[in-house]
Design a protein that fits this description.
Elements: E1 2-9, H1 13-24, E2 29-33, E3 46-47, E4 57-58, H2 59-72, E5 76-79, E6 84-88, E7 91-95, E8 100-108, E9 112-114, E10 130-131, H3 134-137, E11 145-149, H4 153-162, E12 168-172, H5 182-190, E13 194-197, E14 200-207, E15 211-218, E16 224-228, E17 231-234, E18 238-240, E19 270-272, H6 284-306
Parallel strand pairs: 1-2, 1-8, 2-5, 8-19, 10-17, 11-12, 11-17, 12-13
Antiparallel strand pairs: 3-4, 6-7, 7-8, 9-18, 14-15, 15-16
This protein binds NADP nicotinamide-adenine-dinucleotide phosphate.
Residues 49, 117, 149-155, 157, 174-175, 179, 201, 235-238, 281-283 line the site of NADP nicotinamide-adenine-dinucleotide phosphate.
């Protein structure tokens, strides 16, 4: 079995920043990513609050730079879905379908995925008008009517992005106040293509072969109505990618990994960083910060086991 000092699971900004720090510390480190690097960030068209980039940076460009920088110092990246992490005497084993690897320490950086609405029509019309990624699918809705559901940073940011394509963008939010950052709210309010439908939740997505409308309910009046649209983009928050841990470490009631401020989980030698962790603010900059701390903590842990701590 291949042996490492540290295995990082997940190649979003947290995992890549963690890999950079560990590689620079000359720890033998492997990062295992399931599908593609970048996590939620790579699905973002423009990231304008990552410090040091006053004109903003594309999500895919930032991901590429993070990867290049970590690999420059020797981070090894491989692909596969980690199914299980288990303890073997002093080491931790991470198993994918293809391979088993061992390391003195493991870092969980598996991020989070978009939450679904769980309403009729959502699964049926996925890829036929229902989407969770504006950068991936926005261009399919040129001159169409687009509905966006949600009131957080993602919904408002992506609604703004979708105005590049849609004839109009109708943002449905369950309250009458947005959760998104004020600068995004101001921009959306000033955009003629964006209409707001307040105090409303989607009940059902309607159509034949493709989405044709969404049925909504006003939560204050109880009145139901239909909005005609060809695309519906769902941005109602995230759920952490922690199911595969199967009780390995302590999670909170929503499934986020509980860590201390050194990114230590409830199991010795297992650390967590980024969006999969219980924390106040989920941003690229905080993911990278977490990654650096997790790297340092796991380095100390592994060096103590090897007897090479200073
Ligand atoms: P979020 O902040 O959790 O917001 C989710 C939104 O969806 C909220 O407005 C919520 O309404 C609404 N919602 C939740 N469940 C719903 C349901 N079942 N039906 C209808 N509406 C529902 O999620 P997010 O916007 O995806 O952001 C996730 C994290 O990433 C946040 O920490 C965010 O700050 C961060 N992020 C940052 C940026 C940036 O800085 N540029 C960009 C994207 C994401 P309520 O408001 O009523 O709860």
């Amino acid at each position: 079995m291949d042996q490492y000092d540290v295995i990082i699971i997940g190649g979003g900004p947290a995992g890549l920043a963690c890999g950079l720090y560990l590689a620079r510390a000359r720890m033998k480190t492997l990062l295992i990513e399931e599908v593609g690097l970048g996590g939620q960030a790579v699905l973002t068209d423009e990231i304008e609050n990552y410090p040091g980039f006053p004109s903003g940076i594309k999500g895919n460009e930032l991901t590429e730079k993070l990867k290049e920088q970590a690999e420059k110092f020797g981070l090894v990246i491989d692909y596969g879905k980690v199914k299980e992490i288990k303890k073997n005497l002093k080491s931790w084993e991470a198993a994918t379908n293809q391979k088993k690897r061992e390391a003195l320490s493991v870092i969980i950086a598996t991020g989070a995925k978009p939450k679904k609405l769980d309403i009729p029509g959502e699964d049926e019309f996925r890829g036929k008008g229902v989407s969770y990624c504006a950068t991936c699918d926005g261009a399919f809705f040129r001159d169409k009517d687009i509905v966006v559901v949600g009131g957080g940073d993602t919904a408002v940011e992506e609604a703004l992005f979708l105005t590049r394509f849609g004839k109009k963008v109708i943002l449905i939010h369950r309250r009458n106040r947005l959760r998104a950052a004020k600068v995004l709210q101001e921009r959306a309010q000033a955009n003629d293509k964006i209409e707001f439908v307040w105090d409303s939740i989607p009940l059902q997505i309607l159509g034949n072969q493709q989405v044709e409308a969404v049925k909504i309910k006003n939560v204050k009046t109880g009145k139901e109505s239909e909005i005609s649209c060809q695309g519906i983009f769902v941005f109602v928050g995230l759920i952490p990618n922690t199911d595969f841990l199967g009780g390995l470490v302590e999670l909170d009631e929503r499934g986020y990994v509980i860590t201390d401020d050194e990114m230590k989980t409830s199991r010795e030698g297992v650390f967590a960083c980024g969006d999969c962790r219980k924390k106040l603010l989920r941003q690229v900059v905080t993911a990278c910060g977490d990654g650096a701390v997790a790297a340092f903590s796991s380095q100390k842990y592994a060096e103590e086991l090897k007897g090479t701590a200073y």
